[in-house]
Structures are given as structure tokens and as C-alpha cells.
Amino acid sequence: MADTSIAAPEQAPRGRGSDFGDTVRALEIDLRIIGMLVALAVIWVGFNLASGGLFLTARNLWNLSVQTSAVGVMATGMVLVIVTRNIDLSVGSMLGFVGMTMALIQAEVLPDIIGFDHPATWIIAVLAGLILGGILGGFQGWIVAYIGVPSFIVTLGGLLVWRGGAWALASGRTIAPMDSTFQLFGGGSRGSIGASLSWIVGIVACAGIIALLITNRRRKHSYGFPVRPLWAEIVFIAVACGAVLGAVAIANSYAPLDRDLGIANPVLILIAVTIIMTFVATRTKFGRSVFAIGGNPEAAELAGINTRRTVMLVFALMGILVGVGAVITTARLNAAVSGLGTLAELSVIAAAVIGGTSLSGGIGSVPGAVLGALVMQSLVSGMVLIGIDAPLRNIVVGIVLVIAVAINTYYRQRTEQLTA
Amino acid sequence: MTDITGERPPLVELRDMKVSFGGVHAVDAVTVDLYPGEVVALVGGNGAGKSTLIRTLSGAHPADSGEIFIDGEIVDITTPKDAKDLGVETIYQTLALAENIDAPSNMFLGRELTTRWRTLNDSAMEAAARTVMGRLNPKFENFKVAVESLSGGQRQSVAIARAVYFDARILIMDEPVAALGPAETAQVNELIQQLKEEGIGIFLISHELHDVFDLADRISVMLQGKLVGTVNKADVTMDEVLAMIIIGKMPDQVTEVELEELHG
Q: Which of A36, A157, A182, A268 has the most crowded Cβ, counting Cβ within 10 A?
């Protein structure tokens, strides 16, 4: 290392932002996530008033959480795809194809080999779905990264191919029913973990949040970096744990047929996927590479990152998550039809974009995308609840999508002015 | 390693390098070398092939043919990682920074420091970045914001910090001061002197002949993909180098009339 001491290049005079900006920075609050939570609160309260108190009921919120799961899971992968300046239009069709394959395996293939409702049926079906999704996604990613065909075209082709494939697999028949264990992935009256286990999950989650904050704080401390004031940590822990335990309490209070359901399995899957994907995106070298590629592909390449392999892996990961989405969707429907997942790509992309992912690449967050999925689903469910017709619902969702992106763009320009 | 004459082999030798793009010989049989603690300037007009030649050494673009020797031993450089593993660091004219991530992340891009769980250790990277920057540019404080919100000089500092942090033995600087003002240029030039004293070999690409004459020990001139020649700075005048750049003639071949015409 050079022991050099050249003086600073002259620095452009820069507004350091306001006191408010400094406070936000010191507390490490993500204003965009806060903004989305506020938007969500407004939507929920608004629909609750409009529906005469039907929206904020345990039953509706429980259903809302289940309905958000499949799109939320896939949106976490779409964030990474879009961050690398790509798009995946094929996820809806791929969900149909993978779902149909899993359905055929458990309804028509395995019963002949290992017998009907064999305990291993669901394991084989789920693994096959995840692997197939990974292969299909990886194949599309290979064409994008190594052959150089734009992802828009590759996945537009995929949209047609996998949808046609889903039809061809079963000649358009509906495949049902699913294996009895497999059905549990869809939620429903049996597909949730019950009140006691839900409390345990909630408490473990709280412990995890606290452990994470302490580790972070210790690490920063050991390098002599400023840490959040203690009161802020405590408030943060209180709010986060309160939200977690509150959600568990609501889930547990939904007890149709006198059985407390607790957290639904697909919601549990969504939570796990969100945690894993957030970790991948922000704490691993792979995630760092993904964001660098989105920011400047040439710089990433020159930094020694294998950009092609990374992009291919992102698409493979997207495919695996489509597999997860397909498990949830077929299990919930207890059937596979060739139209399964039609237009899901649009919900998934919209969720990612509403969640702050920039289509020009380099910017996006996994929790944001999941919140985006929740916002979308809240709008749709809320409008159904107050009796708005499907065409009008689409109009509203379309408008909200554009407004959300407009707000994001405005916010980004403003923060750039603040820091630059 | 010594050869029969007892002389040290050059730190780097690019021998007979050829790169062509669709029939156009961007670099045509060029041989240059570089010794430890030496600055070799590569000069020439636009499209002379300087950057292309240097990109073969940094692994950004493999050569069609030719050999690269480091410490007298032939090496195989086909990717940027190969070059970095051999101690070749590059400051690109474009800076090659990912604008959406912060300075420490850019410095360690592709070579991130990790915790024992193999997760990113952002605190360690920030601490290291602060140490390096403390020496390069003590006023630099924006470690947590995306590079896109930094000034040109600050971005330049990040690119330089990245190149010097990893104990480079060979440094390639492609137009390191192109975007800088006079004060910043002076600082970079001072840095080059200090790195040189530490025995690092530097290939310097520059349009600015005054900088070249200030910093370089030897000057290699390229014209239309070919090497016109390499001269010791002490042996030539700026006009003679200009003649090499423009009409491709060595100082002993150029006539008084031609030198006059350059000022024409």
C-alpha cells in the first residue's frame, strides 16, 4: 500500500441535507419501506371504512396473506432479475408448466409406481418442480447471458412455449386431485401450523431480530463506527416484535369451525423465502455481484466478476422460485389446469416495481417487493370486498402501478439532489 | 531471476501483441516493456491502439496473438481476474465503477472481505476503505452513499484507491487525469511519483505531453496500431515526440523541415 498523502481533490459544495435527513441516516431507516407501510395502512383503513369493517377482520387478513404468497415468493426473484437489467415475462407460463408437471407426477405417474398417496409422493413432486423450474429458468438465462439474446425476447418466447407446453402435457385436461400431503402447501383449513406453533414461530422470529441487531451493533462497534442510539434500537425492536407477534395473534384469532388455524403454510414459505432472498441479495458476494452488474455491467466484468454466469444463475434462481410458486398455487387449487398462472408475470413484475425496483437496473429490495405484492393483493381483495367489477379493478391496479413508479422516480431524483 | 548478462528481466514485457477487430489491426505486432519503479508512457493519437494494447495486459480483452511476460516468465491473461492475481491493477479511463453501490463496495468488488460465515463484512471493508482513503484523500467522507452522487475527483479517488489497495506490482493508468482539474491533476501526479518510488511499474496513457514529460522515464509511441518506437525521455524533445505521434518518424529520421511543418 502506498503511503501517500495527497490532499483532497476540491469537493463540490454539497447540501448535507436537512437535520431530518441526518437523523434518518443515523437511525438507518429506509424511508421507502416506511412509505410503503404508510401506503399499505391507508389502503387497509380505507377499505375497512368502505366495506363497513369487513377488511380488517382476522378472516380477511388471513386470506389476504395466503393470496399474496405465490406472487410474493416469485417477486423476490424478479427483483434480482430486474436489478441485472433483465426481465422475465415467462414466470406465469412457467408456473403453469411446472405446476402441470408436478400434478401429473403425483396424480398419474407415481400412483402407478409407488401407489396412491404414498408418503414420498409430495417430496418427489416438490423436488421435481423445483429442479424443473431451476432448469427451465437456467436455460433461459443461459440463452440471455451466453448467446446474448435480450431477456425480453427469450422470456417472451418462454411465455408462449411453457404455456403451450402446459397444455400439451395433459392435452388441456384438468389434473386433480393432488396428493393429500402436497395439498398442505396451499393453506386451507388443514394447511396451517396451528396456534401454538405459530406463537413459537413468532417468538423465534423476535429472538432472531434481536440477535441480528446485537450482532450488527457489535460488529460496528468493533470497527469504531457510529451505532444507532440505544433508545432507537429498543424502539425498533419493540415495533418489529410487536408487529410479528401482532400478526401471529391475528392469524391465531381466525378460527373457522372452532379450529384456530395459525399461520398458513404458504405464508410460512413466503416468510422463509423473503428472509433467504434478502440474505442472498444483501449479505453474499453473489448478491453484491448482481447489484454491481445492474449498476455497470462493464465495471463488474472488469472487477473480475463472472457476469454471464451470475446472470444465468439469477434466472435459474427465478425458475426455482417459480417452482415454489407453482407448489403453492397447485396445492391451493388442489388441481392443475393448463391456464394456471396466466398473467402472473404481470403481478410479479408489478409487485417488484411497486416495491421500488428500478427497471433501469441496479436498484431494488426483496422486502420491498414482498410489500409490493401485499399492496397489490390488498387493492384487489379490497375492491372485491366492496363489490367493484373486474374491469374497474384492472383500471385501478393499472393506475396505481404507474403512480407508484412515478413516486419512486420522484423520490429517487430528490434524494440524488439531497446527497449530490 | 537474472539472465546471462546479469541484468534483471523487465517486470512486464508485452511481446509481439496483435489484436484485430474485423480485419482492422487495432494493435499490430507491438512490443513494449516496463521495469520496476519505472513509468512508461504510452502516447499516440486517437485510435492509435494504446488502450487496446493495455487491455490485453489488464485482461479486459485477450490478444489474438503475442506473449506476455511478467518477471521474465510467460503468463496467460485472459480475464481481468487473471491480471489481478498477477498483481496487475488498472485504473480505466471510464473509472469502471458501479454507480449504484458505495465506495467500499466498489473498492472490493469481486474481492469482497467476508466474515467467517462467508457473508459480506461491510464493516471491515469500510474500515479498510477509510484507511486507504485516509492516505489518498483525507477529506473523503462519503463512504455510505452510492458512487453516483460523488464528484468527479472523488470517483477518481475511489478508482485509484481500489488499484493501490491490493498491493499492485504493475499499475495501468489510462488517462488518469482526463476528467480532473489542475489541482486534482497535480495530486495524481504526486501519487504516481510516490508509487514509483515504491518500485511499482506504471504504464501511463495520456494525451497531455507535459504530464508525460513530467512523469515518464520512457515513452512508447503508437500510430495506427503499430509501435513507432520507444525513447528515453531524457534523449528527446517534445517536438520530436510530437513528430513520432503525428508522422510516425523516429527522432533520427525526422528532418528539420518536417519539424517546422508540425508547428505549421
A: A182
Gap between the Cα atoms of A299 and A154, Å rounded: 25
pLDDT band for A224, please (50, 70, 90 cuts).
Answer: confident
* Distance set, CA A45 to CA A41, A49, A243, A247, A381 (Å): 6, 6, 17, 16, 13
3-state SS assignment for residue A383: helix
**Cβ under 8 Å to A: B residues 55-84:** 58, 60, 79-81, 84
> Using the beta-carbon criterion (under 8 Å), do B154 and A11 form an inter-chain contact?
yes
In chain A, residues 166-225 whose CB comes closer than 8 Å to chain B: 219-220, 222-225
Q: Point out which residues pair with B75 in neighbouring strands.
A: B68
Tell me how close the Cα of A177 comes to any Cα of chain B, in angstroms. 43
Quote the pTM value.
Answer: 0.91
Q: Which residues pair with B223 in a beta bridge?
A: B226
pLDDT digits (tens, 9 = 90+) for A294-305: 999 999 999 999
Backbone angles phi, psi at A55, to 5 degrees: -75, -50
Task: Pick the residue from chain B with its C-alpha nearest to A361.
Answer: B100
- When pLDDT is averaged across residues B6-17 and rounded to a whole number, the result is 88
Whether B257 and chain A come into contact, CB under 8 Å, resolves to no
Note whether A4 contacts B94, CB cutoff 8 Å. Answer: no
Q: How many CB atoms lie within 10 A of CB A414?
A: 10
Paired sense of beta strands B170-174 and B88-91, if any = parallel
What are the φ and ψ backbone dihedral angles of B219, each rounded to 5 degrees?
Answer: -130, 120
Whether residues A2 and B96 touch (CB distance < 8 A) is answered with no
Rounded to the nearest angstrom, the gap between the alpha carbon of residue A377 and the centroid of all alpha carbons in its chain is 13
- Judged by CB atoms closer than 8 Å, whether chains meet at A1 and B164 is answered as yes
Report CB contact under 8 Å: B190, A4. yes
Residues A292, B123, A288: CA angle, nearest 5 degrees? 15
Check if the beta carbon of residue A39 is closer than 8 Å to that of residue A401. Answer: no
Alpha carbons B88 and B201: distance in angstroms, whole number:
10
User: For B69, phi and psi rounded to 5 degrees?
Assistant: -110, 135
Put simply, whether B116 touches A (Cβ < 8 Å) is no
Q: CB-based contacts of A139: which residues, under 8 Å, 6+ apart?
A: none
